[in-house]
Structures are given as C-alpha cells and as structure tokens.
Amino acid sequence: MAGDWIKMKAALHTDPAVIAIATATGLDSYAVVGRLHALWAWADSHTEDGFARGVFVPWLSHHLSHETFVDALISVGWLCVETDGIRIPNFTRHMGQAAKKRAAESDRKRTYR
Q1: What is the pTM of this model?
Q2: Containing H/E element for 36?
Q3: What residues form DSSP beta bridges with 86?
Q4: Sign (positive or negative) of CA dihedral 101, 44, 79, 85
Q5: Most buried pick, 46, 72, 85, 93, via CB within 10 A?
Q6: What angle do CA 7, 66, 68 make, to 5 degrees?
Q7: Which contacts (CB < 8 Å, 24+ apart) does range 13-18 have?
Q8: Quick one: pLDDT band at residue 95, thresholds 50, 70, 90?
Q9: In a 3-state reduction of DSSP, which class is residue 112?
Q10: Smallest Cα–Cα separation from 41: which of 79, 87, 6, 83?
C-alpha cells in the first residue's frame, strides 16, 4: 500500500541468503530474485507492515510458482509463518512510506552533492 516501487539492492543476486535459497530450490539466483521481487511487490501492495493475515504457505507457493521456495525463505529467515498468517521480517525497514521517503531523500542528497 506504500507505492508503486520497491527497494532492492543492486547485488541482491549475490547475497548469501539468495545463494542459499538457490541451492535449496535448484533455481538460479536470477529466478530467486524474480520471485523475491514478486513477493515483495505483492506484500508492498497488500500489507502495511509485511504481515498478511489469512495467507499461508500453500497460497504463497502457488503465487510464486515453486513448491519449495517458501520453505527456503523460512530457512534463511526472510519469511515467518505465524498461526494467523505470514510475516516478512524487517519489512518496514525496507518498504513502506517511511523507508521509501528515506531512500528518496538519500538519492536526492547524493544527486545534489
């Protein structure tokens, strides 16, 4: 609900967690990053804080078109399953209006210098 863009680091495809997810799923790192983008864009559009009440692993696995991808996310700590839904840890640090405002301000200052 925070906007029409999401923040992703430039070297995400070489992040150790991405490599671990790729190894666990048999996907290449670019397929992992594409699925992460889909997950984070969906969460940004449909949650305020990265918690999706009533959404569970089967739906998310179907949405991301891979049976073991969600399990790999859980194993690296990038997704938590709770009794009433799923949560993306540290979501508001990277997404949401405040995080996007910080990122835009940082870009503006960098351009100004």
Answers
A1: 0.82
A2: helix 29-46
A3: 52, 81
A4: positive
A5: 72
A6: 95
A7: 17/76, 17/77, 17/78
A8: confident
A9: helix
A10: 6
Is 71 exposed, middle or buried (CB count within 10 Å of its CB: 0-12, 13-18, 19+)? Answer: middle
Q: How far apart are CA 84 and CA 20, in angstroms?
A: 27
Q: How far apart are CA 13 and CA 32, in angstroms?
A: 8
Strand 85-87's sheet: what is its strand order?
A: 51-53, 85-87, 80-82
CB atoms within 10 A of CB 65: 11
Q: Could you write out the DSSP letters of every residue in 65-102?
A: T-SSHHHHHHHTTS-EEETTEEE-TTHHHHSHHHHHHH
Length in residues, the chain: 113
- For the record, the structure tokens of 24 come out as 């666990």
* Model confidence pLDDT, tens digit, residues 50-89: 999 999 999 999 999 999 999 999 999 999 999 999 999 9
Q: Encoding tokens for residue 41?
A: 């864009």
Read off the amino acid at residue 90: N
